[in-house]
Amino acid sequence: MAENEMLYNLFCYDRKIMDLKKELEKSDDVERLENLRDQAKTLEQNLFEAKKQLKSLQNQEKKEELENEKLNQEKQQLEKEMYLGDKGVKEISDLYDRINELKNKEQKVFDNYCDISDKIEHEKVTVENYESKYQSYLEDILSLKQEIERRKKYNNSEIEKLEQEKEKINNNLSKDMLNKYNQLMKRFPYDPVVKFDQQKETCACGLDLSTERHNNLIIEGIDFCDSCNRILVYLD
Ligand SMILES: [Zn+2]
User: Fold this and answer.
1) What does the record list as coiled-coil region(s) (predicted)?
2) Are the C-beta atoms of 166 and 10 separated by less than 8 Å?
């Protein structure tokens, strides 16, 4: 490979390596991943609260059930007493009042129980919704993480291949030329080498080559800019 071609390839590899590294650094996906994690955390908290609320409602429901059972037993006991038959009018009337009172209490407990049951059904739907949303966030996070890892792996392996290609060129370029290239690379990381063809006659710094210099470049294949010192290569 001729020197001009080697230098131009070297610059192309460096450019690609720079782009690949940049892509890894400024990837929006890292920010997206952070957002997804924040949202999943909020959902996890909501889910936890909803489950706590459901548990508390279920405990209340249980309490009302027990209360209802207790009142029912008490009522049955009084009804038995009433029908024993050895009671006076006053006693029967009192028992009757107490049974009615218990029936009223029972009704209230039952109403309360129904109310709580409705709330439980509602809360179960809430828990299910949070749960499925939370799961879908976890899936999104996982797939995005895999995507980031995949790209990282790909870019790193591409960088490694390019470094190997660079190494081959480095071994074939003269030490002086390599030093010159590396110095220019520090000053102009995006264009230390400028490629010319039959038409192109202007350096990256804006300097126009004279027709004579341009013709000479076409013959020699390589030259240096008088103004910025960049490496000028002719490749058709
Ligand atoms: Zn120049």
Assistant:
1) 26-81, 127-179
2) yes
